[in-house]
Structures are given as structure tokens and as C-alpha cells.
């Protein structure tokens, strides 16, 4: 028997409803999401969530996003109005069954209409492709016929010119009767040979015109083969490699910069083995974490974020149980775009801000907002939205956090492309 899920949160505007459903281990592959006009269901065995909506929605434009153990819905209302509640009040089992059956029938009808439209579009595409192919073949056939006709006219013209020349020569040169008879015989034979050459030429052209581009390719290949040079003589090239400590070639490296890098690495290793609080030359106030925290706050106010981080680092080494040190250092990392470090410090601050009481509510809200901002700048918008919603649970009247959460929802649903600041 499925386990009914009742743990969810929802918010609304006059035009849309935003529903967040936490499901541990949920994934796109295993979850079955069904959305209709008045009915919404998520089946992720053994969990089952269904709600009979208070008013109709536009199921075609509504969207769902699955990720980070959460299903987030954006449901667009058909009528612009504020709902009194998410689900329809006072629905008995018989009415629920009718709504389920009606929703399934509507979904099947919509799917069938979409399939028919897709098949029609596919047929239109095939028809268009066939028309284009026929036109291309017709143009190619016409081109070949024109080439044959031009070649025939050219051959006919050459024959007529040759005949005119022969005629003029006969008129200008007087010859004896016997030679004339002999020349007449030769002229008949030449005419037969010319006629044979003309027929052969037309036949050859017809053969080449039928083959079209293939004949041109054959002639091009023959020409290319005839122009291939002879193979080169066999030889060997000896290559010597210069031994190098660094993986790059000597021509691509600068020895001075490499030595400086090695020196800095050695200095960094020596610094990591040094315990700063044990330095005997520290001033008395520098051993006070609260004084260091105030010093870091002043440096943050002057936008000297690196110096502020150094002050917070020293304070944390002196006392690593003060949550505000991690929270303030997270703000510095956020300004410097050290996003992973900002997430790490915000999570550490939330870990120390326990139990959740009224005195630490403001600090917890700031930690959620800073971690959510870092997630958004890493384009992890689902995780960022969860932190902003957690901040709104602590301070629901904060208009700035409400505006940023609305902006993240728009990004998740694809209606806005700008990332969070």
C-alpha cells in the first residue's frame, strides 16, 4: 500500500502557484508526475502524493522540476485570483474517483490529438521533400538536354563551314577531267568519314551527358593520378631531447619564474606548519577573538575583503565555536566570488547556530541567504531556492528575500536567464 505524503509547502500569486514537495531520493527516471486541470499526482514508490486543486489550472503551460530530493511545481491559474487553500475542501471518495477518471480521459485525448498533429506534420514534410526531389531531377534532365542540343548545333555549324570551304576551293582551282573524277571519289569518301565522325561524336556526347557529373569526376581523377610525383627517398631524422625538470619545453618556459614559483611553494609549506596563536610577538588585543571580529567588520566596511578574511581566520584559530566569525567570512568570500568557500562557511555557521531560538534567528536567516546566493551564482538554482525558502520561514515579512526567491523561481522555470546577484 503506498505511503501518502502530506509534507509540502506552497506559495501563490494572483497568476501562479508554487508548490515544493520534498521526497528523499526522488529522480526524473523513477518519479511519475501527472498534472491535469484539477488534479495533481506524484508517484514515487512507495510514496504517493495527490491533491485535488482548489481551482482549474493551465496544465499545458504548468511546469515541474525534479532535483536535490525535491519536486518543485509552477502551476499557472486559468483565472487570476487568490486561492483560499491549495486543495478542494470537502471532497468525498466518489468525487475524487470521478476527478481522477476525468483527468485521465482528458490526458489521453490530448495525447491522441498531439500524435495526430505530429503524424500530419510528418506527412507534409515527406510530401514537400518528394516535390523538391522531383524538381531537382527535372532541372538536371533539362540541363542535360540543353547540353546535348548545344553540342548538336555546334557540330552542325562546323560541318556547314567545312562544306563552304570545300565549295570555294573547288570553284577557284581548275583541274583536269580525270583528276576531277578522282577528287569526286575522294570527296564522297571524305563525306562518308565526316558523317561517321559526326554520328560517333553525337553518340559519345550522349553517353557522357547521361553520366553527368560522374564522367567529370573520372576525368579529374585521371588528371590527378597523372600529376602525382614520385615517392621521396627513404631517410631518417635524429631527434635529441633536452632533459628538463618541468614538463614544458625549454623554449616555452622561463627559468626565473619557475625558480620563484618553487621558492613560494617552499615558503607556503613552512607557513602551514606554523601555529599562529603561539607566536610570542602577538599583541594582547590580537589574542582576543571578539576584537579580531570587530577588526574584520571594519575592514569589510572599507571593502578590504582579503584583510578582513585574515582577521576572521586568526579569530577562528583562537576560538572555532563562534558562528558569527564563519558567517562574516562567508560574506567576504561571496564578495570575492569564492563561492564554494562561502557555502562551506555558511553551512558551518548554521551548524553552530543551534538550537534555533529567537536570539539567533537573524543570523540563521543571513546564513541561508548567503548560502543560497552562492548556490545561484554556481547555477544550482534548486538548492538556492531551498535556502531562500528556509530564510522566508524565519522572516516571512522580508520583502527583499521574497523578491529574490520569486526571481529564482522564474529562472528555474525558464522565464528568466539572469543569475542571482
Structure, described:
With 421 residues, this protein is an alpha+beta fold. Helix content is 58%, strand content 10%. It has helices at 93-172, 177-211, 213-226, 255-272, 289-301, 305-318, 323-335, 339-352, 361-377, 381-394, 399-412, and strands at residues 3-4, 9-12, 16-22, 32-35, 39-44, 47-52, 63-67, 70-76. The strands form 2 sheets. The chain has a 4-stranded mixed beta sheet, with helices on one face. Helix 6 (305-318) runs antiparallel to helix 7 and helix 9 (361-377) packs antiparallel against helix 10.
Descriptive tags:
421 residues; TPR_rpt; alpha+beta; Serine Threonine Protein Phosphatase 5, Tetratricopeptide repeat; four-stranded antiparallel beta sheet; four-stranded mixed beta sheet; Immunoglobulin-like; single chain; nucleus; 11 helices; flat
Describe the secondary-structure layout:
Layout lengths: L2 E2 L4 E4 L3 E7 L9 E4 L3 E6 L2 E6 L10 E5 L2 E7 L16 H80 L4 H35 L1 H14 L28 H18 L16 H13 L3 H14 L4 H13 L3 H14 L8 H17 L3 H14 L4 H14 L9
Parallel strand pairs: 1-6
Antiparallel strand pairs: 2-3, 3-8, 4-5, 5-6, 7-8
Helix pairs in contact: 1-2, 5-6, 5-7, 6-7, 7-8, 7-9, 8-9, 9-10, 10-11
InterPro entries: CS_dom, CS_DYX1C1, Dynein_assembly_factor_4, HSP20-like_chaperone, TPR-like_helical_dom_sf, TPR_rpt
Pfam families: CS (PF04969)
Keywords: Cell projection, Cytoplasm, Neurogenesis, Nucleus, Repeat, TPR repeat
